[in-house]
Amino acid sequence: MGRLVTWRQRAGARWARVPFLGSLYGRVFIIFWLTLLVVLAAVMWAQRGDPRSLHAIPSPEKARIQAQIEKLMAVAQGRDIPLSVLVARQNQHHGHRRTPYKLYWVPDSAPLDSLPRELRHFMSRTSDTAEPLQRLYHRYMLAGPFPIVTSREAGRFYHARRWQPRLPFVLKILEKPEHLLGVTMLVSTPLLLWLAYTLTRPARRFQAASQRVAHGELVTDSDLERGPREFRDAGRGFNQMVTALNQMVTGQQQLVSDISHELRSPLTRLQMARALAVRELGDSEALARIEQEASQLESLISELLTLSRLQSQGHLERERISADALWQTVIEDAQFEAGQQGKQVTSNGIPDAMLTVNVRLARSALDNVLRNAIHYADQQIRITMERDEGQLCLSIDDDGPGVPDSMLKDIFRPFYRVSAARDRQSGGSGLGLAITAQAIQQHGGQVNAANRPQGGLAVCLYWPCS
Q: Are 462 and 391 in contact (CB under 8 A)?
């Protein structure tokens, strides 16, 4: 198999060097002409063995016919009987005995109107031949001419014998136009399949590559730069686009990471200055407020670094893992945290499903939603997991205050806060649900939120699975 793949790659490289064959339109043109050539060659080859066309007489058959004529000539000369009379008697005698052959004597001066139509046609086709030929007419094989010159007259013998073998199957097919059309389709099918494969294989590569980009995998694919010239150029442009997108995303993420790191230095100095002030002056309401704001800023920077790190590694570090191994520990941690606050997290169980994900990113996505639900729920948080047409649906429902309907789509934006239910005093940075939304989008999934009729918020995460 490895040698076959190598041979195909080398053959494709050689084709690519030829300007005409390296292009898509050149290959289509060549394949159509090759199909026509193969069909014509097959028809011409089949007609070469057609007994209904003029062809040479096999040597044994020719010798046998000549022996019959010589025997007849000897009888005519020995008994002094005209050839026409002797041939008529012999044909009548052989016809009575049902012999499979018949002789025709045609003198040079004799009229041709009385001869059978098939014989007249055969004579017109063989009038200029130096050697006897034969051809099939219906059920008789006509052979001749065999020229004879005697003291009385000159003329030609023609031999007709009953054709016993059946017409070859290939020739029967070519007798009717619809049969010829069927043969043409049969012969051209392999070449057309090859053409379809040649056209669709690069298209399938582009389809797979575009799906990977849609799922957040900004990785170039060298296979896109193979095949016909048009697809190679398009593949090269696609890889350049992916490289540019990757650089843009990486640069943006690096900028966020650098800013976050730079903010930590003055923040650390601020915390140290606050500690020194407490030691020298004692604790006060103003210093406590500084500590609170510094802690919140520290949390915000940490989440920014987490978001930047997960985004930059989300499309590079993926593995195939079961849903149970992926999220069971996250659910158990949420149940423990909710229990410490007097709340309860329940689950209907994790279905048997396999996912290809960045493990840290997928766990962080569910953990952020669960923490948000635990924070705002009154008593109950319910996790429901179901498989539906190639995706795994995770629904996290709480019995908290919910979110205004006009803000349901905005809660997944970075730093967005719902004033009716959330402010800075709650300690949230507004990045948790944004991390969840971007994580799911990188994996080709969806996330949405809706208010429950009985109160509370329901967040649904849709993950592609198998």
A: yes
Q: Is a pLDDT exceeding 50 seen at residue 286?
A: yes
Is the distance from CB of 375 to CB of 410 less than 8 angstroms? no
Q: What is the secondary structure of 347-375 as a DSSP string?
A: E----S-EEEE-HHHHHHHHHHHHHHHHH
Tell me which residue has tokens 């002094």. Answer: 80
Q: Are strands 154-162 and 344-347 parallel, antiparallel or unpaired?
A: unpaired
CATH 3.30.450.210 maps onto the chain at 55-167
Residues 164-203: tens digit of each pLDDT: 666 665 566 666 667 667 777 777 778 778 777 877 888 8
Cα–Cα distance for residue pair 465/355, rounded to 1 Å: 5
Active-site hit among 121, 159, 215, 261: 261
> Strand order in 380-387's β-sheet?
344-347, 380-387, 391-398, 457-464, 446-451
The residue-averaged pLDDT of 443-455 equals: 88
CATH architecture for residues 319-464: 2-Layer Sandwich (3.30)
Q: Give tens-digit pLDDT for 150-170.
A: 777 788 888 888 876 666 655
The Cα 316–Cα 422 span in angstroms is 35
How far, rounded to the nearest angstrom, does the alpha carbon of residue 237 sit from its chain's CA centroid? Answer: 21
Greater confidence, 210 or 46? 210
Which own/partner pairs from 114-121 qualify as long-range (CB within 8 Å, at least 24 positions apart)?
118/142, 119/158, 119/160
Considering the domain delimited by 215-316, tell me its CATH architecture: Orthogonal Bundle (1.10)
Residues 358 and 318: beta-carbon distance below 8 Å: yes
Return the amino acid letter for 161.
Answer: R
Catalytic residue status for 261: yes
> Would you identify the CATH topology of the domain 55-167?
Beta-Lactamase (3.30.450)
Identify the weakest region by mean pLDDT among 59-63, 205-209, 301-305, 335-339: 301-305
Q: Where in the chain is the domain with CATH 3.30.565.10?
A: 319-464
pLDDT digits (tens, 9 = 90+) for 319-370: 889 999 999 999 999 999 999 999 999 999 888 889 888 888 888 889 989 9
Q: Which amino acid is at 202?
A: P
* CATH 1.10.287.130 domain range(s) in the chain: 215-316
The answer to whether the peptide bond before residue 414 is cis (omega within 30 degrees of 0) is no
What pLDDT does residue 54 have? 79
Look at the chain and count its residues.
466
